[in-house]
Amino acid sequence: MSQSLSLLPQLLLNALTTGSLYALAATGMTLTYISFRVLNFAHGALVMIGAYLFYALTVQVVLPSVLLSAMALVLVGYLCAWFMHRCFFAPFIAIHPVLPCISTLALAMLIEATISMLFGVSVLSLSTEVHDAITLPFQLSLTNVQCFFIVTSIVSLSAIALYVRHSSFGRQLQALAESPTYLAALGVSIAWRQRATLFIAILLAFFAGIFLGFEANLQPLMGSSIMIKACAAMVVGGMTSLYGAILGSFIIAFAESLIVGLDLGVWSIPASYRDTVALVLVLCILLLKPAGLFRNKGRAV
Questions:
Q1: What does the pLDDT look like over 235-256, one tens digit per residue?
Q2: Does 127 fall in a domain?
Q3: Of 81 and 4, which is predicted with more confidence?
Q4: Which of 213, 215, 253, 267 is within CB 3.0–4.6 Å of 18 for a Cys-Cys bond?
Q5: Among residues 218, 53, 54, which one has the least CA distance to residue 124?
Q6: CATH number at residue 244
Q7: pLDDT (average), residues 76-91
Q8: DSSP labels for 101-158?
Q9: Distances (CA, A) of 270 to 76, 82, 243
Q10: Does some domain include residue 205?
């Protein structure tokens, strides 16, 4: 038990890293859900696209600077937002709200098949030359890449959440989730706001994919697990709350790390049950508080 407690600081630090990754994916899915009121089942595939695009730009093409790679990712993100809204959301959402879920699921399968044909199904890896360890107290282990992604994720997600909550665009977005007909009657362009929101969500997915690419190997199904965790964080957070999605992501990450990582003797949970922790937590939330822990007042799940 004492040895298990000595690992507690490192487990918490690992949970902070994992929670930042979950929060990036969950915030993107929440933004899409607020804007369209549907779950984007292609979000995990978008995470995978971000990882493979970064691999192609930095390993295969080798652009001269990270700034050019970032600009290329932004351009691809804008094109993806326009294409998805035009072909997979707008034509179907006017008919029935369930149809975009089916269309995005089909899109995810199409993306995974395309990536498999272009890059193959073999496992790929991003460069590990930048994984220099940072000296921390209590013999804690953290790389400079992990530190960069943790800080950048928390800062960017907090800024997005504050902007959506306090800006006029954010208020219009919340009104869009409540009554798009009323918003259209005021002369507000719904399609433009939906595309802008989807663009932000896709950029967050790309960023999460790059983060995941450095944390694990690249393979065509790498986005499936992260999308499940993002959906779980949305349920824990209340579906329409960005703060809830962020906090729900860290709750899941800390629960996974502590439940699986601590040595409790005969009560220890095997590491293979790590993905089950999020599903059990979601089940408990749905039974005890179906609206989620941080549900926005007046917005149903």
A1: 999 888 899 999 999 999 999 9
A2: no
A3: 81
A4: 253
A5: 218
A6: 1.10.3470
A7: 94
A8: HHHHHHHHHHHHHHHHHHH-SS-B----TT-PBPP-GGG---BHHHHHHHHHHHHHHH
A9: 40, 44, 31
A10: yes
